Amino acid sequence: MKLASYNIRKAVGRDRRRDPGRVIEVINSLAADVVVLQEADRRLGQRPTALPRRMIEDHTDLIPAPLATNDVSLGWHGNAVLVRRGLAVTGVERFDLPSLEPRGAVAVEIEGRFRVTGAHLALMRRYRHQQLRELHRVLGDQALATVVMGDFNEWSLRNGMEELSRGFHLHAPGASYPTMRPVAHLDRFAFSHDLELTGSGVHATELARIASDHLPVWAEVRTTDAAASTLPSAAGANAARG
Predict the structure, then answer these.
(1) Taking every annotated instance into account, which residue ranges of this chain make up the domain Endonuclease/exonuclease/phosphatase (predicted)?
(2) Terminus of the chain with fewer CB atoms < 10 Å: N or C?
């Protein structure tokens, strides 16, 4: 399964123009089975989405997971999850995360066998530590293979992620921020121990460098138990229906 994480900055690009169409183009070029978005919704009022649902439906092969609690948002606390058609979303969860400002994380269960969690953590490390402890508490003891991904806002590659490292393998695919000259590995993955990373990278196309201030990151994973069923894939689901 190919996974991607992308902070779309409310579809405002490096040129300060809001252009959801080019964000959609970047998402399509990722060719991922699941895409976790940060800053998918605006911050004020009812938090209307910056990436219209109709545009996603008409121009991608992805479907938004039902995370919004109103009719205008795409996700929750700006976190949204897009799942490729043919993959069944069998459950969703929302988690409040402690912080000075409202923060949350979302989890989407796919085919009853795999869970993707998206988060956008606080700017201050002391609050990130609290948020990581909470994520470990709500995710660490569950049976499903799990990936946590998003904008962790951690600049250090050695420190700052200790709470989550107790139950997950941590991985930073590369420098993804800022797009003009990436130096920070803010966008990362954390994999439960029953998953194996088979490939990863930073999606550094010319369009991606303009569409947001973060570059998307991606990872390919598979189960480590050879006897276990493979991770769900859209191709497999569509073949079964055929």
Answers:
(1) 4-214
(2) C
